[in-house]
From TrEMBL:
Organism whose genome encodes this protein: Candidatus Magnetominusculus xianensis
Keywords: Signal
Record-given protein name: Cytochrome c-552/4 domain-containing protein
InterPro entries xref list: Cyt_c-552/4, Multihaem_cyt_sf
Any Pfam family: Cytochrome_C554
Record-annotated Cytochrome c-552/4 domain positions: 41-128
Chain segments carrying region Disordered: 210-229
Signal sequence segment: 1-17
Length: 393
């Protein structure tokens, strides 16, 4: 099971690069208006632009996300050992505006940090020029409009550029162009929000935020374009409902915990590199630890770990491109409630803490691949307390 923790993150930031059977890219008509830089949008939409700057959409390219870049390079190294040339299928969602996207995806070209359309990641012009979603077996793609009009769910009557209405941006279906599903060459579902999720993504991920949507608007708020998820602690703290109680037991105490997933999808969500786990610690009057549900590795209490990992070639914990099936999936389904109980054989308990810890990467994975850490203060190596409650006696 140790190897599951080490490899369960399975390089998902570059998983899309491992599917050579899928060579299509977004459909941009010949002669289509060129993409505009998102910075240009800031002149009329300053609040929304600030949101986007702080979002993972603006940081989606490997040129801005060191962890993503590190995983891509590890993948290339792995392919080289097998005598293969690695491609960059991640481009379809991580840098969808790249002018050479087809070459990136078929491996005949490599990412170039000097190209702004790669560096910008998922820019304003991409989502707001989508016409349709082209559904595929392994993943989805988009059709982009030719005239360059910016579409929205409720377009203004006047604007300094072409506008149009697209219901995809009202229903949250626009999100499913990238977040719907991804399968590898063996047909294994690496992620599948279309199966694991429900409802409208916008209800939670684009909540109302102070500030008008444009300088010409009379509104006082707008739909947030930060689109917070696993990188957002406030969002994480909305994800779960946790009930914890401490009761008398023979010779000590019983800790009863009930955790409910309040999100409209699995927790952690479909990306398998994420993990969460329950941490329970009891202290005596001198703050000395007298109980913990694990010592060093959360997998010591594997029933209280929420994660997903793959199997292939007789091994458990293989990377996505080698996956032949799912080995472990203990994530919480939407609306699922799971209960835990711990008996502490001591009558000296004075303080007890119950936490649900969320990590973007397991610590063992970062130890194995130091590039994931980025810096000494790397967010990837931090523990986020999605829930914490303290009992005092």
């Amino acid at each position: 099971m140790k190897h599951i923790i080490v490899l369960m993150m399975v390089f998902m930031a570059t998983a899309a690069a491992t599917f050579p059977a899928i060579l299509s890219a977004h459909d941009v008509p010949d002669g289509a208006a060129p993409y505009e830089k998102s910075k240009r949008c800031s002149a009329c939409h300053p609040a929304i632009y600030r949101d986007w700057e702080n979002s993972m959409h603006s940081k989606s390219s490997l040129h801005k996300d060191p962890a993503h870049k590190a995983m891509y390079e590890v993948f290339l190294s792995d392919m080289k050992k097998e005598g293969k040339e690695g491609s960059y299928h991640c481009a379809s969602c991580h840098m969808p505006m790249a002018e050479n996207i087809k070459k990136l995806m078929d491996g005949t070209d490599k990412p170039n940090e000097n190209l702004w359309r790669e560096d910008e990641g998922v820019g304003c012009a991409f989502c707001h020029r989508v016409e349709t979603i082209v559904e595929g077996k392994g993943r989805n793609m988009f059709t982009i409009n030719k005239d360059g009009a910016y579409v929205s769910s409720n377009p203004p009557e006047k604007a300094p550029h072409g506008v149009g209405a697209n219901p995809l941006l009202a229903s949250g279906e626009i999100c499913m162009g990238c977040h719907s599903h991804l399968t590898n060459q063996s047909g294994v579902a690496i992620c599948s929000m279309k199966e694991e999720g429900k409802g409208n993504c916008l209800d939670c991920h684009m909540e109302k935020k102070e500030g008008p949507p444009s300088i010409e608007s009379n509104k006082n708020d707008h739909a947030s374009h930060e689109m917070g998820g696993g990188h957002s602690l406030p969002m994480l703290r909305k994800a779960l409902s946790v009930k914890a109680s401490v009761n008398e037991a023979a010779g000590g105490k019983t800790v009863d915990i009930e955790i409910t997933n309040k999100t409209a999808h699995t927790f952690p969500s479909t990306m398998p590199m994420r993990m969460a786990y329950v941490k329970v610690v009891a202290y005596d009057a001198q703050k000395k630890t007298i109980f913990r549900n694990y010592e060093k590795n959360p997998m010591e209490d594997k029933n209280a770990v929420f994660m997903k990992s793959f199997k292939g070639g007789g091994e458990v914990g293989v990377p996505a491109w080698k996956a032949e099936g799912v080995a472990v999936d203990t994530r919480l389904k939407s609306d699922e409630t799971r209960t835990f109980s711990y008996t502490i054989q001591s009558d000296k308990i004075k303080t007890l803490t119950v936490e649900v810890i969320y990590r973007l990467f397991p610590s063992q994975a970062i130890a194995k691949y130091p590039a994931l850490k980025e810096t000494e203060d790397s967010v990837n190596d931090k523990q986020f307390a999605a829930f914490r409650k303290e009992f005092t006696y």
